[in-house]
């Protein structure tokens, strides 16, 4: 009994096994991707456009099915999923509160019961006092915060983020990077983060999966060594620069192979 | 290069109102007043010109009555004409309500099943492109109650814009939001209620604005076709009747009521659209410039 439990705990949260995705019978978006996502880690998928990183994310989210290979979740972990898209993807007709309430509402949780959770989630991204605002009244960065609050309101085991900060200015992006790390540290969820920014991937993740295009595939996995607290000091530290160079070289190699 | 920038900064410091900003505010005020005053001026001018023409050339009232004569006729015939207006409005509003129910309902059905849409959408189009004047006589043969006949005619004209707009609206759902609903395992009903319906609302309201005017037109046209079969005559019936008696002032008075009813329906649908969309939709939100 004890042995099984340990085995369960050390088993990865989910595992991609030789996952291939072909679109329209012709375009291979992803070719034989194998990857284990471990509990509590921050994992980045890094690569140029067309490398299948977003496709991989959609497959994990269950939004499309692999053409070949399979995605295996650890038993009982499938349902707990939160997603943040490239755009904030808020319902313009709903207030901030109602937008964050949505995932709970779809599970049949009433407004009154959900209130505490929604408010806590909004507070965790620094948006107390904006519950009654409509999305169009918010800045791009604030909309993204609402989107993150919505993804976190169900307390997901796994958070999928698809280039969430690509459209934001650098100042806002740095702030949101810090906030996502803080949020993850507090809630202990696993994050799979898609990006095309070397600097962002190194700053955020424990592990960077470098991908190449045509066909989309994994070329290298790089573990990032970082201090326990990643902050502005880390952003300007020589270790950070060195690891960025390593990842950047790997990416350059990947592009040269393609 | 730096001189204009310096001037700009100086202007910004001399708040609250510098000369240019004040001029802009004056222009904005003039535009607001003009939006109301200009149409009123044009209407007033036209009425004056009409009055002058009729008196100056001594046009007999059975050819062209003056505006004063039309108004006095309206007052004189108020009981007959107001009753007729109520009859026409009843048909119009019932037709509009039915159009909303059937058009909206069909649109939802179409969005639920592509097969239903493929099967029935062509019929909706045929119904729409066939002129109502040509279908109406048949309808009045097969439908015994004249009121029901009028209602069917007005409904046929009014329902298509609601159907086609709402169908389009139910389909123009943001793809990422749609994915989000999939991820959270939304049921078909939840998707319709919380995603498709709000997405379709601006489209539906646009269709309603068109249908409001069309249902009045449909009701009037149907009354003309029905002719004397309508015992409780509406406004079109009164116009026909007055034309047989060469009562031209009464024709004008009835026409005036129809026009006013049309404007009232348009204003009501526009108000509804604004009320429903003002908080979130680009079409209704005022921008600060």
UniProtKB/TrEMBL annotation, chain A:
Keywords for this protein: ATP-binding, Nucleotide-binding, Transport
Pfam entry (one): ABC_tran
Domain ABC transporter: 14-240
Record GO terms (molecular function): ATP binding; ATP hydrolysis activity
Keyword S-adenosyl-L-methionine: no
Matches recorded under Gene3D superfamilies: P-loop containing nucleotide triphosphate hydrolases
InterPro entries according to UniProt: AAA+_ATPase, ABC_transporter-like_ATP-bd, ABC_transporter-like_CS, ABC_transporter_ATP-bind, P-loop_NTPase
Record flagged with keyword ATP-binding: yes
Annotated family: Belongs to the ABC transporter superfamily.
Protein name per UniProt: NitT/TauT family transport system ATP-binding protein
Species this protein is from: Rubrimonas cliftonensis
TrEMBL record, chain B:
SUPFAM superfamilies the UniProt entry points to: MetI-like (SSF161098)
Domain ABC transmembrane type-1: 85-269
GO biological process, one term: transmembrane transport
Subcellular location: Cell membrane
Membrane topology classification: Multi-pass membrane protein
CDD domains, alphabetized: TM_PBP2 (cd06261)
Transmembrane segments: 33-60, 80-108, 120-143, 149-170, 200-222, 251-277
Record keywords, A-Z: Cell membrane, Membrane, Transmembrane, Transmembrane helix, Transport
Superkingdom, natural source: Bacteria
Cellular component, GO annotation: plasma membrane
Family: Belongs to the binding-protein-dependent transport system permease family.
Protein name: NitT/TauT family transport system permease protein
Organism: Rubrimonas cliftonensis
